[in-house]
């Protein structure tokens, strides 16, 4: 039989585990309760102090000292909470105060840590405060993708040419998160990114180019027209699709002629993107080819062609109505569906 | 007077009982030992996750216009009373590229009429790209007010069929499958999409589903999470926490997630379509799809990562009556048995990597057969005690091993929740949680063994019915409020 001592040992062990979990659970609860109460008070005071400091024309050293004396976690919370709501000189004042209380130095220290979690935290603080510093720029080449992504987010608010070029290089980042963050950052950088991105698209191909084309589509500058035309004849259907989307977003007449040619691409996704692009441009001259798209064997091409016809206005709607009465049942159905759609629905 | 013969039977019986019990003990030691590994894995994963999300400015990155589009597929069957509130909550979700597709699965009440009236719907030509065979679509509606809203009225064919119809209408890269009564956190989709941005090979993500019973709900949003005072619902809160925060999170780190709750899951549309969509003839269609996606990734060599997000992203109402809960658990276990049987070719098959050699057998031996082994142990104890062939020391040891360690692990899951998200803030909630964790093993778990065995039995007999799920609901306004839908879930 099982010796009583074994049973007793197991009982004691389990009881100890339970008591320990109970202690952890409730003591954390107690700690949280008091911590939150004290934190709320500290946060409210610090928020009030910081708001006062930001609204006055001069800085009261005593109040800065007061802010310096609150716990680090409260400092971080208050500065990060206020940061998105201020701009211009107040943002500069916020950074000055953050530097005065040692928050920026501490964040820079985090950025140089060996632990990725700390580097991430450091980059987050500096990004939220819009602090321009080479220490964050270096994190664009960090081994951890989350840190690189955070540094890219920081880069969106620091659109210097070296940062933008670094961001463009990151369009080839193997980590999807970092790549996405870079695309988003370049989009937020806006007009400053247009020229470098156009050059990048002229020199690159493959996945980085596809990632860049998405940004170009969102920015929709005419500087991207050569890239759109160049990739419209690419051997990669994904690139041709992105190019069609880009040309449609730019809306230039020379892009429209390319899109018309792309309506006969062998890949349905490309044809659909071309039709969508022509609709986006409201290129009424394309109404007849788009009406032919209503008879396309691929559903998504017929749908995009129908929506594009509606978008180009009166000539397109006329052709849709004709298609409803036409002999092609597929075209008639799609035309009817598009005509039935409320104006807001796409 | 005992004879030599009856003494002999007694000795043999005792031997069988003791050997059987020892085997059961070893089983429970192994299972609980593995649970300990999962707990450690979950704690490490949680730490990593907390590092990733602390001070994250999600709206900048995840709310970007470049984010992948999401089509929410919301099947509805006779949801006349709740559909308006549920749909308004969905349309208000914080996500930049959102399409909502409501699929009325042959509702016999006024679900469609309510939608038409409240959301300015207009009928449009009922044509669509039928990519999966489904029951016929009767009508199609688009909203003149909400550009991203599509309503489909189809013949009744079950949830899987409704989701398949939704798949045909979805235009986004990702689809979100959910139950019509699931409450999604305002930024739930932003949180759920994160793994798709982290890893290129993710085909599906699931998030932590929590129990809404007892919590304060306002316009389809959780205002204050509370632990229900109803024992049955309270114990399920503990169960859900354990299943998500320790089971799925632990497996996430080890690459062995095979379940995404049907209440709320995000999928890559093309992968689901390539897999053929949801299966109709199973009651475990959500798990079946995930296993099929995983299996096909090995067979065809495509992406196949199943990711889990520990953030509490959605809330669901759990049954508060034994009858309804029994039906649910019976169905879940039948579903599990059915899915494992359908994909039995993966069992211990090295072609399917870690999933085949390790994860699948875990689901067979630990998830599927646990009630059989537990029941055998309990019956043997009862028989042994009745006939005086087992001593109390052994019984105590059995109980401690089978349930005691499990309780301790559950308690640590509560600690993990408290250290990470601490959604239950009051001492009352903490105390209740702990009480429900302790009470779980005193009767509740044994009843679930019965329900699960019943599910297995029904599976062996080929039953595939869903049963009726009775809900108290949380979308009915409290009387006296001035049109503000603010209620305590499960209490109306």
How are the SSEs ordered, and which strands pair?
The complex is a heterodimer of chains A (346) and B (492).
Chain A: H1 4-55, H2 61-69, H3 72-82, H4 88-100, H5 103-111, H6 116-128, H7 134-138, H8 145-156, H9 161-169, H10 176-189, H11 191-203, H12 206-219, H13 225-231, H14 237-250, H15 253-262, H16 268-280, H17 287-293, H18 299-312, H19 314-324, H20 329-340
Helix pairs in contact in A: 1-2, 1-3, 5-6, 6-8, 8-10, 9-11, 10-12, 11-12, 12-14, 13-14, 14-15, 14-16, 15-16, 16-18, 17-18, 17-19, 18-19, 18-20, 19-20
Chain B: H1 4-53, H2 58-61, E1 70-76, H3 83-91, E2 98-105, H4 111-118, E3 121-124, E4 137-143, E5 149-154, H5 159-169, E6 174-178, E7 183-184, H6 188-192, H7 194-198, E8 202-211, E9 216-218, E10 221-224, H8 231-254, E11 264-268, H9 269-275, H10 285-300, E12 305-316, H11 322-342, H12 353-368, H13 370-386, H14 392-420, H15 427-460, E13 486-488
Parallel strand pairs in B: 1-2, 1-6, 2-5, 8-12
Antiparallel strand pairs in B: 3-4, 4-5, 6-11, 7-12, 8-11, 9-10, 9-13
Helix pairs in contact in B: 1-8, 1-13, 1-14, 8-14, 8-15, 10-11, 11-12, 11-15, 13-14, 13-15, 14-15
Written overview of the protein:
Chain A is 76% helix and 0% strand. Chain A is extended, with a radius of gyration of 29 Å. Chain A has a domain of 62 residues: Leucine-rich Repeat Variant (Alpha Horseshoe), CATH 1.25.10. Chain A contains 20 helices and no strands. Chain A is mostly helical and 346 residues long. In chain A, α6 runs parallel beside α8, α17 runs antiparallel to α18 and α17 packs parallel to α19. By secondary structure, chain B is an alpha/beta fold. Chain B has a domain of 332 residues. In chain B, 52% of the residues lie in helices and 15% in strands. In chain B, the strands form 2 sheets. In chain B, strands 3-4-5-2-1-6-11-8-12-7 form a 10-stranded mixed beta sheet, with helices on both faces. Chain B has a 3-stranded antiparallel beta sheet with strand order 10-9-13, with no helix packed on it. The longest helix of chain B is centred in the N-terminal third of the chain and has 50 residues. The C terminus of chain B is likely disordered. Chains A and B meet through α1, α6, α8, α10 and α12 of A and β3, α7, α14 and α15 of B.
